[in-house]
Design brief:
Length: 291
């Protein structure tokens, strides 16, 4: 618990610097800071992701339920996506993973993936999203390319890929590593955010936790039964945003809007900069404690 309190104390320091004002944040009591008041669930424990799934939270990791994740997003000024989200992260905050479920139905996994075609579709969507970013006075984004091309794991029924993006104003880069875990009635989306320089070990760390994830009984992919609702899209559309269009029945712009909300939350509205600062503060605290 000492390490958990240290991590939360580090989070509190940066939250004060960013949200309130330059004050003696390192001396601020945990109970006085909104981030420290979030209902962090330390491991070892079991994180419940809505009524669809669970994930093992090992020692050294933290979990936030839907209410805590919602409050975290509010503190970071992240636009809501309209769905419940759940957060998993290591205590040292080397990465942050967001979980959310989309009940679009059973997605067939018999589709061949064309990375070039999918990248072109994502680039087009990002260009449309940049129009909205300009309207709001926000920095535009550039799609650099695949950090990791899409791969499907038939044993885990998991689709994974990583996209490298750049802020065109600051030229800062960030990697979004995405996983889609297929279930009987829909898809669990997971987006992991990490420093591009540390993405490989972060992905490896996250992948080590995936075996501890499972859909609850009756919701597993292998439990599909004739008569269950089958999604109108395949694997490629889970990457390019087609699932949002099908779910909303409002076409491409609606899909782009849903995808854009994810970009806003995970890129340049504030969470990455604040999260990186949290990591720096934590590492300084950790280094000082080791002397």
């Amino acid at each position: 618990m000492k390490r958990i309190r240290s991590a939360i104390r580090a989070i509190a320091v940066v939250a004060c610097l960013w949200i309130v004002a330059p004050v003696a944040a390192q001396e601020q009591a945990e109970e006085d800071n909104p981030l420290a008041q979030l209902p962090w669930q330390p491991g070892p424990s079991e994180g419940r992701i809505g009524g669809q799934a669970t994930i093992d939270v090992p020692e050294g990791y933290l979990f936030l339920g839907a209410d805590g994740a919602r409050r975290l997003n509010e503190l970071f000024q992240n636009p809501p996506t309209g769905t419940d989200e759940y957060v998993l992260a290591p205590e040292n905050l080397d990465w942050i993973a967001y979980f959310s479920f989309d009940g679009i139905g059973y997605v067939k996994d018999d589709e061949d993936l064309d990375p070039d075609a999918m990248l072109a579709s994502i680039r087009e969507g990002l260009q449309r999203g940049n129009e909205e970013r300009r309207r709001r006075g926000w920095d535009t984004l550039r799609l650099v390319g695949w950090q990791a091309e899409p791969q499907y794991d038939e044993q885990l029924n998991a689709l994974a890929w990583a996209i490298l993006l750049e802020n065109e104003a600051s030229q800062s880069k960030v990697v979004n590593y995405n996983t889609r875990l297929l279930g009987r009635r829909g898809v669990m989306g997971v987006t992991l955010v990490a420093d591009p320089e540390a993405i490989a070990p972060s992905i490896a760390d996250f992948k080590g936790l995936v075996p501890g994830y499972e859909f609850v009984a009756g919701e597993r992919y292998a439990e599909f039964r004739p008569g269950d609702h089958v999604a109108e899209i395949g694997l490629a559309a889970l990457i390019t945003g087609g699932a949002a269009a099908v779910a909303s029945k409002k076409g491409w712009l609606a899909a782009a809007g849903v995808a854009l909300a994810k970009f806003w939350k995970l890129l340049l509205v504030g969470i990455v900069g604040v999260w990186m600062a949290i990591r720096r503060v934590f590492k300084r605290s950790d280094d000082a404690g080791g002397k």
